[in-house]
Amino acid sequence: MMNKKILLSENDIPRSWYNIVADMKNKPLPPLHPGTKKPLEVSDLEPIFATELARQELNDTDRWIEIPEPIRELYKNYRPTPLVRAYGLEKALDTPAHIYFKNESVSPVGSHKLNSAIAQAYYCKEQGITNITTETGAGQWGAALSYAANHFGLDLAVYMVKISYHQKPYRRSIMQTYGAEVIASPSMSTKAGRKIITENPNYQGSLGTAISEAVELALNTPNCRYTLGSVLNHVSLHQTIIGLEAEKQMEMAGEYPDVVIGCFGGGSNFSGITFPFLRHKLTGGKDIRLVAAEPASCPKLTRGKFEYDFGDEVGYTPLLPMYTLGHNFAPANIHAGGLRYHGAGTIVSQLKKDGYIEAVDVKQLDTFEAAILFAKSEGIIPAPESSHAIYAAIQEALKAKEEGRQKTILFNLSGHGLIDMASYDRYFDGELSNHELSDEEIAKTTDMLEKLV
Amino acid sequence: MMNKKILLSENDIPRSWYNIVADMKNKPLPPLHPGTKKPLEVSDLEPIFATELARQELNDTDRWIEIPEPIRELYKNYRPTPLVRAYGLEKALDTPAHIYFKNESVSPVGSHKLNSAIAQAYYCKEQGITNITTETGAGQWGAALSYAANHFGLDLAVYMVKISYHQKPYRRSIMQTYGAEVIASPSMSTKAGRKIITENPNYQGSLGTAISEAVELALNTPNCRYTLGSVLNHVSLHQTIIGLEAEKQMEMAGEYPDVVIGCFGGGSNFSGITFPFLRHKLTGGKDIRLVAAEPASCPKLTRGKFEYDFGDEVGYTPLLPMYTLGHNFAPANIHAGGLRYHGAGTIVSQLKKDGYIEAVDVKQLDTFEAAILFAKSEGIIPAPESSHAIYAAIQEALKAKEEGRQKTILFNLSGHGLIDMASYDRYFDGELSNHELSDEEIAKTTDMLEKLV
């Protein structure tokens, strides 16, 4: 039998991240200062982010950014992650397609988020910053940053979306085990939170709101910076380590993917798995399809507008050119908490606009059905977020079967679901629904966008 | 920098398990039929276990038992597991000791239990058995067997110790995701359960009780067999894959352990990590210390009696010669649910009696303190069971520091704690205690043993 897992050694951990912007003919439009509406410069971002991260955010010329040795060293705690040939799933689907997944769930916090958390904590520490803040949706990012902040000796405050704070109490405990402070958002600890609670006391929170709170705290705390787990260019940059490893591993398997799939919230794991493959297409090399799988309840890529919008609920962040449902869109309380974000990162948005990537929206019930098939055939219970990618991969494999042709499919298993079993319980109990949106609902939330710039 | 993880390839998965009994000068005393009190034969065990498992249970001559190819194939889903040099923990302890751990937590169900679950389900399937039953304490074994039963297409009923059923609801959900039926034990579904509930309606269950129920169901269901996740010889046999891999990996690291440590419940992970190293000592090779770390609330190896005793609460099982606290000992509700068992496997008991292995008992609060130090220094949140081994390893490392000498320590990280965060929460909230036993309590529970044979 062939190997199931295609493994690299610690020496094979990439030495640079891939900055796709350098290869894009149409660069993303610049982020704008929310007050002046002028293109941002590094100095505008420095009060919020560590300087090196601000530089990476606006770097559109350097194709490769060297990974500092202390980051590579900490990556060795779990990287390189395995690439797995999904023989069990192929058999269950009776498909001629070859299905591979990159297994980021082997990270000690259970998801890919650690790849950027380690980098961000490192650059903050190097600059002498002592305190950091962040937001978290499902808790995956918060857990990862807690791990990294603890390692580098930084104090961390995490604003956790209220719905997840209650649905996923154990992710909160994980953050606390690593020593982080966790606050349910919206909270009364910030102006932004108090305003939202006053207007809507029962609001269960969103990533947009939690970002407002975390940014506000960072700006009002000495020697403190904010960090973000998705959406931004520097986060996508760090996550390219996923695809760079996967590229080597596909080569070892003697195959090249026809399609690469990632679930889509703000874009971090999708960018991570796809950008290194897309670089060949951008530079005239091999063609490939890239598919973002987003929830039908939060369909910014498939049904949103491409406009300048705020990254947060209240409007503290720069204006970003992106596919968005509007910064005050309140997504339904689906269990894939990490995908409940109103906008797509600016790089992905530009690539989508230019036809380089595709998007599909997936209904919540379909994702759980796909997750259980995957658990039974491959043995790993996936995170509800990752199940969106699994569903899309299954569709691709079934299409290949219908067409009777071989196809090579690669998707990113961004995390496992062992801390999400309450969500599975609710699915088994028939308590979940799809939360699809009507055209009126979409129009209502996006209509205000034209007035922003 | 050196590699942190020492990795083997799928081809390096051992082709045989190691049967230590073949190398023991003093073989364990024979298990006795509970009715006739005569030594058991394979035919006595066949109504309960698959025939091949019954043969393995009583095999005291074959040193190596070949691993069937379909089992090795399924092992590839997560094996070989990494051996990790715990640089972070060494630094935190400022010790000259080199600390290694075998990371069994990377299995898709989060623990080493899958190693035997896969083997047992396979042999049942091969024999044409359609239904299996089992018990589970913390849920680790039940989750593993659910995974394996699903893979081989067997129907599975799991009796889960009531305290864990409530403390660890997500382990239950994991079993259900793989398609198993889960019943809280003691239950009203068996005579054994009804008897116990009648006598003590608030009893929170124990492994001994759950075993009685699972065996009873197996004996009363057509084409059904019982399976067990620890204690028995064939389980220890399957788990030796841990130590066989670790031995190769230590060789790759250029070191040989001075001491090997495993937490101790019934013996499965302890036997697994230690027996392959002990084989050299038994056959006149290199000396080595082997340490079993058991809970102070359930100290059979350190404070129990070596006597014939039943494996279960009610007395359905054969009489086994072992260190025991008495089959009706009701252990305190500690969070290391997998270690709440009254007896030690017969092989380990004989080895302990003959001075080949040592045992230490560890207080619950000390295990959580060790767990948090491990989480912060190595990044992995350990299962409460595994934290007993971590505590013992830390003590060895601190002793090395005190004595100012190098020492190589290997322990088994039998599982991660991501599904045990409720236990960590209770520790943080100061709700846990040590549940140490007085000499009177020990005497009271072991005094009846002398009358059994």
UniProtKB/TrEMBL annotation, chains A, B:
Keyword field: Amino-acid biosynthesis, Aromatic amino acid biosynthesis, Lyase, Pyridoxal phosphate, Tryptophan biosynthesis
Source taxon at top rank: Bacteria
InterPro entries according to UniProt: Trp_synth_b-like, Trp_synth_b_CS, Trp_synth_beta/beta-like, TrpB-like_PALP, TrpB-like_PALP_sf
Record's protein name: Tryptophan synthase beta chain
Lineage: Bacteria, Pseudomonadati, Bacteroidota, Bacteroidia, Bacteroidales
Entries under NCBIfam families matching the protein: PRK12391.1 (NF009057), trpB_rel (TIGR01415)
Catalyzed reaction equations: (1S,2R)-1-C-(indol-3-yl)glycerol 3-phosphate + L-serine = D-glyceraldehyde 3-phosphate + L-tryptophan + H2O
Cofactor(s) listed: pyridoxal 5'-phosphate
Pathway: Amino-acid biosynthesis; L-tryptophan biosynthesis; L-tryptophan from chorismate: step 5/5
All copies of domain Tryptophan synthase beta chain-like PALP, residue ranges: 77-415
HAMAP family: Trp_synth_beta
EC number: 4.2.1.20
Name of the gene this protein is made from: trpB
Family: Belongs to the TrpB family.
Subunit structure: Tetramer of two alpha and two beta chains.
Protein purpose: The beta subunit is responsible for the synthesis of L-tryptophan from indole and L-serine.
N6-(pyridoxal phosphate)lysine PTM sites in chain numbering: 113
